[in-house]
Amino acid sequence: MRLTGGEIVAQTLIRSAVPWVAGIPGHGCLALVDAFYKHRKELPLYLVRHEQSASHMADGFYRVTGRPAAVFTSIGPGALNLAVGLGTAYVDSTAQLALIGETHTYMFGRGVLQELERQRAADSLRVFEPLTRYSHLATRVEQLPHALNRSFQAMLSGRPGPAIIALPMDVQAEGMEINPEALNFSGPHFAGSPDLVDLNRAARLLAEAKRPLIVAGGGALRARASAALIGLAETIGAAVITTMAGKSVFPEDHPLYAWHAGSKGTVCGNQLAAAADIVLAVGCRFADESTSSYRIGSSYNIPPAKLIQIDIDPGEIGKNYPVEIGLAGDAATVLTALTAEIGRPVKDLYNRSYSIEIAGCREAWLAELAALRDSKREPVSVSQALLEIRSALPRDAYLVTSSGHSQAQVLQEFPFYEPGTLVTTGGFSTMGFSLPAALGVKIAHPRKTVTVLVGDGDFLMTAQELATAVQYDLAVVVIVLNNQGFLSIRDLQHDVYGEARRYATEFKTRNGDPTSPDFTALAGAFGLKAEKVSRPGEVAAAVKRAVDAAEPRLLEITVNREHPFSGGKAAGWWDVPIPEYLTEKRKNYEQIRFEEKLDR
Question: Which of 115, 127, 497, 512 is most buried, with most CB under 10 Å away?
Fold first, then answer.
C-alpha cells in the first residue's frame, strides 16, 4: 500500500497501542495532523493550550499505566516548548514519543519561518539530545519505519525515557509503497537476570542483617514492584523508606514503613538510614536531596553500612555510594528472586526489637508534626490543610503535585496506601507539572478520584490547562494552596541566609502588601465552579464537595504565610552554598563541608 509520512506515523502509533496523541497544530505539522484526522477514531487527539502541558499529560498517563502516549508540535518555538516536559520525563524515567515539525528538506539552511540554522540547518533537534533516549531527524519518508521502531525500543527497553523524531514538512506529506508489516513494533528488550552468585551473596547478607533497611526509588514504581517489595520486607523484617520519586510504592500504614531520608525527609527515616547495617537500594539514584547532600551520618553511613543496589540501569549502580553487591535488572524480578533465595521468613517480624524501634521512631515523627498539624492559626497551616485533605480523599485517590512546599510536605506527612497513587516530579522538580499531568492520569483512570495539590506560583505556570479539563470533561479537582509567593524559596532564604534576607520570593504590590489573583474568579472564567476556604476545619468538607461533584472543580485554600507554619520541618542537611560576605554563616557552612571531607 502507499502511505504518506504522516500516515506511516499514525498507523505505527495505532499498531503499537499508543492510546492517544496530544499537542497543538501549526504550519509545521499540518500533514501529520491531517493523518491523525484520517485515523481519529483509533487515535484520539487532545488539544492542549501549551506544548509543555502535552508532554506532562503523557508523563502522568505513563506513570499510572506503563503505556506511552505521543505528543506533537509544529516547528520552532512550538517544538522548543516541549523541552521542560521532556526533561522531566527523561530525569524521572518515563516514556513518551515526541513528534516535532521541521523545515522542508529542500529549504534546509535558508532560514525559513521558525528554522534554527545559523550553526547547522534545521538544528532544533540538538536542543533535545540531552533530554531524550533517542532522537532522529528524518530526511526521507523511507526512514520513518526504522526510526519509529528504534524510538519505541529506546523508550521501553531497560530504563524508560522519552524519544523524539523531527519530521520535515515534505517528509510528512510525501508517500511511499510499504508493507504494512513494516509498521509493527518489534517489542522492547528486557534486562537480563543478575548473576546467581551475587544474588546468593545478597540474600545471605540480608538474612543475616540486624538492622536491614530498604530504600525504594522511582525505579521500583516504574517496575510495578510493590508486591515484591512488601514480600521481601516482611521476609527479612526490614525498615522501608522511599524517595520522593518512589513514594507510594510501599503502603504507608504498614508497620515496617519508616517514611523518608534526606534533607526534605523525616527525622525517623534519617535515623534508621544512618543506623542500618545493610542498605538495599531499589531503583534509587541516591540524589542529593534524598541523601542530605552525601553528608556522612545525616542520612546514610555507607560505608561502614554495606550497600546492595538493584537498578535496571547498570550505570546507576555504585555511582554515588560504593556497593558491596550490584544487581542489574528489573526491580520486581530481582526482589522476587531475592525473596525466593532467602526462603522462609528469617525473623519474627512483630516480636523483633527492631520492628518495635521502627514503630516508635515513626510515632515520634508524627508527634513532632503535631505542633504544625494541630495549629488552629488562621489562615490554616499547610500541615493542617494536608491532614484534612487526606481525611476527605478515598484511600485509592490519585494525588498529583510538583515543586514547592506542597510537594515537600506531602513527602513528609501525607500517607499513601495504594502503589502509584502519588504522581510527582522527582529529580527535575518541575513547576507547572501538576495540572497537565493530572489530566493524563484522569484519562487513564476516569472513574478514580484525581486531585491536583499545587502552590499558587506553580499553578500559574500551566493554569491555562483548566480550559483543557473543561473541554474534555476531565473531572480533576485542583486544590491551590495560596501563600502569595514562592514561599518554599523564601523559607529556604530564611533558614540558610537569615530572616532579613527574604528577597524576590513574595508577590507584593509597590506598597508592600501581599497580592494574589482571584483564583475562584479565574476558575469561573474557564467554566469551572470554585470555592475558597482559609480556616482550620473548613478544608475537609470543601474537598469532599469538590470530589463529589464529579466534574472539574477548583478549591483555593488560603494558607498561613508565617514561618514555620508556612512549611514543614528540615530533617536533614542540604548543601546550599553561603556567600563569603555572610561571615559567620559562611564559617559554619565551611565547617560542615570540612567535617564531611574528613569523614570521606
Answer: 115
On whether the CB atoms of residues 330 and 198 are closer than 8 A, the answer is no
What is the phi-psi region of residue 594: left when phi exceeds 0, alpha when psi lies from -120 to 50, beta otherwise?
alpha
| Per-residue pLDDT tens digits for 437-451 | 999 999 999 999 999
Find, among 434, 590, 549, 553, the residue nearest to 59 by Cα.
434
User: For residue 332, with 0-12 CB atoms within 10 Å meaning exposed, 13-18 middle and 19 or more buried, which class applies?
Assistant: buried
Class of 196-364 per CATH? alpha beta
- For 86, what's the count of Cα atoms within 13 Å in the CB-facing half-sphere? 29
Give the Cα separation of 483 and 103 in Å (integer). 45
Residue 573 has which C-alpha cell? 542537611
C-alpha 263/C-alpha 292 separation (Å) is 5
Cell numbers for 173: 506529506
One-letter amino acid at 268 equals C
Q: Cβ distance 89 to 433 under 8 Å?
A: no
Q: What is the pTM of this model?
A: 0.96
What's the CATH fold of domain 2-183?
A: Rossmann fold (3.40.50)
Round to whole Å and give the CA distance between 275 and 166.
51
Query: Looking at residue 353, what is its pLDDT?
Result: 87
Q: Residue 583: in which H helix or E strand, if any?
A: helix 583-599
Q: Which architecture does CATH list for 371-558?
A: 3-Layer(aba) Sandwich (3.40)
Pairing of strands 175-177, 2-4: antiparallel
Q: How far apart are CA 525 and CA 312, in angstroms?
A: 46
Q: Would you list the DSSP string of 398-417?
A: EEEE-SSHHHHHHHHH----
DSSP helix/strand/coil, 106: helix
